[in-house]
Every structure is written in structure tokens, then in C-alpha cells.
Amino acid sequence: MDKPATPPREAATTTTIPRRPQSPPTPEITRRIEENRLRAKAIREQRDAELRASDVQQTDGSTTTAAPAGKKRPYGSISRAEVPATNRDARTSPAKEGEGLQPVSRKFTKYVDYNFSAMTDTKGGFLSIEDDPWNKSMSAGVPGKPEAEQKPANMTAAEWERLQLIKKLQRNKSGPFEPGLSVLADENTRKRCRECKTVEIDFVWEEVFGCAVCNGCKQKFPEKYSLLTKTECKEDYLLTDPELRDPELLPHLSKPNPHKSHWHDMMLFLRYQVEEYAINQKWGSAEALDAEFEKREQDKKRRKEAKFKEKLLDLKRKTRTEAFRRNNAKGDSNGSGSGPGKAARFGDAIGDRGKHAHEWGRTVENAEGMTVKTCLTCGSQVEVMEF
């Protein structure tokens, strides 16, 4: 049985209808088309003129000129002198506090530099309290020194800075807290400079040191009004810690330590007050102070030399023992040791007489200052300490 086959597709019979040629527009249609084009052009030009003459108000209060459609916008429409608060542009002036972006906190302005070559190796991968004093979780603060004040939560940064500035001015007695000078004040009670008799004195020095002096005289007479540290007072004037810590004996001015902020405050003393106490009261005269200084320097040098001699004698003792062993080993090679092929040791027999027993003589002091005693048989010496 033959399979059914798909019959071939019949060719489509299409009849091509010839298009009629388009008739040209009549003069009436041509006139209407031209009128409509001119009317639309006039309306477009009128609208462009109205847009150029009028300003469009913006939401931020500024005005800008709208450009016609299809043309480039003018520069004034995209560049504004007053940038809105929502624009995060770094070129603009910083926003006021409470508006827009907040300023960077002051605690992030300090850069902490760690010298890893001078740090203590804790073998645990962490920093010690001495190496990381800024870590508040590890360090509880310096004993005897109050903790730094912290900004209250209900106070803004500007208010906190203003409060710190006021406290600094009060401490330095400057600005609005500087004591006033009045012409009505009594001349008998008015404080004047010790040198130039001016009334414009340093009130901080007058309060701390009890010394009325102006800033010009402090720079003019540094041999009298310069400040000394506690270390300089101890080394140059031979003063002790109890004397320097007595405010009635020697008043001092406290300032933050410039080397590290977590160290104790510096104690600054007035030079002429230190010299007056050290020379006139404690030592009696400058010659006595110089003599005491020379005496202490000689004692220091003597202790240093004694320590050096002690180390040198220890080295000599060790060297003498090694030399004795080498000599015994050398004698053993000549047949006088304890046996052939065996290294001689301290206390072995000399020759063939068996174990040697030392016979010590009297204890004497040699030329080196050492107390020694000598064996009468072998001649070896040992150091003896007598009490």
C-alpha cells in the first residue's frame, strides 16, 4: 500500500493592480499647508520668548532661567552659589552644627604612633600597659593623677569646647578672668613688678610663687626668673624629694608633661627661690654647695672604680683557674700527670705520689690587695675571705 504523499503547494495566483499616479495638490491645499506651518512657527517662537523673559522659581529659593527645548542649558542653571543642605559636596563650606553633615570628632584628630622596636615582647601578641597607655580598657590611669574629664552625653561638642576654653582661661587668669587694673585702687595695696614697678604683672606667678613680676622682666632677667625642673633642682642644687614636695618651703607650678600625657605633671620651680633656699639656708654658701657636689662626685667615682675592680678580680680568678688546668694538662703530656693519655685535673697527683693533699701556709695579702694562702707543696694559691 502506497504511503499518502503531501500534494504540492499550489502556486498563489495574485493579480498585480497597477497604482494610479498621485495627483498633485491643488492650489487651495498648498495654501492651507503653508498657513498652518507659519501659524505653528509663530506660536513656537512666542512660547520661547515668554520662557526666556520669565524666571522659574526653584524649591530652594534660587532662580534659574529655563532654556528652550532642544538647546543646551545655560551655565547659570546648573551652577548655584547656595548649595542645598542635602548636597554632599566636599567643595562647599562645612555645615553648621546640627545641620547636614556633622564635623569629625576631635578624638579622631590625634595620631598615635607606636615604636614597635622599643616595645616589650609579651609573647602573646598584645601590648602592655606601658606600651599602650591610650587603651582605657587596660589602663586604669596614673595613681595620684585624676582622670581626664569626659564630655557629658547631654552636651554638644561646641558647648564642651567652650567649657574647656573657659576653664583654661580661669586657670591662666587671662581674657575676661584677668584681674582688672583700676586707677581708684590704693597705692599701698597695689601689686607692682619687682624690677620695673609696672602694674601689669603675671597674676599666675603672683598666685603660685608669690612673686610679682611682669612678662618683660621674666625674659630680661632669666638668671633670676627662669623655671627649673625637679631633676635640675636635685642634680644641681642637691635638694631632696621631701624638700621639693613641700609647697610652703618651695612652691612649684604644675604643667602637663610634654613627653607623654599619661605621665605625672612637671613640677617647675623659680630659680631665685631655689638658689635662696639651697645656698643660704641648706648649705650656707655657694662654696659649701660646690664642696658637697665635688664630694658626691668623688664618692660616685670611687664606687664606680670599686665595682670595676670587683669585676676585674672575678675575671682574674676565672683566668687563674683555667691557666692551672692548662698547665696540669701540659705536665701530663710530659709524664708527670695522673696517667698517660688522661687530662690532669685540679687536685690530682703530682708525679707518682698518688692523690695530692694541699698544705696551706699562712694567709697573706698580695700586691693586688687580695687575701690569699699558698700551698707549700704545689704552690697553688686560693683566695680567702676573712670576716
From TrEMBL:
Domain XPA C-terminal: 224-274
Keyword Ribonucleoprotein part of the UniProt annotation: no
Pfam families the record matches: XPA_C
Region (Disordered): 1-102, 319-349
Compartments where located: Nucleus
InterPro entries: DNA-bd_dom_put_sf, XPA/RAD14, XPA_C, XPA_CS, XPA_sf
Basic and acidic residues composition bias: residue spans: 29-53, 88-99
CDD domains reported in the protein's UniProt record: DBD_Rad14
Assigned keywords, A-Z: Nucleus, Zinc
Stored PROSITE patterns: XPA_2 (PS00753)
Origin: domain of life: Eukaryota
Biased composition (Low complexity): 8-20
Polar residues biased stretches: 55-66
NCBIfam families linked to this entry: rad14
UniProt-listed PANTHER family: DNA REPAIR PROTEIN COMPLEMENTING XP-A CELLS
Protein name listed in UniProt: DNA repair protein rad14
Source organism: Podospora pseudopauciseta
Lineage: Eukaryota, Fungi, Dikarya, Ascomycota, Pezizomycotina
Gene assigned in the entry: RAD14
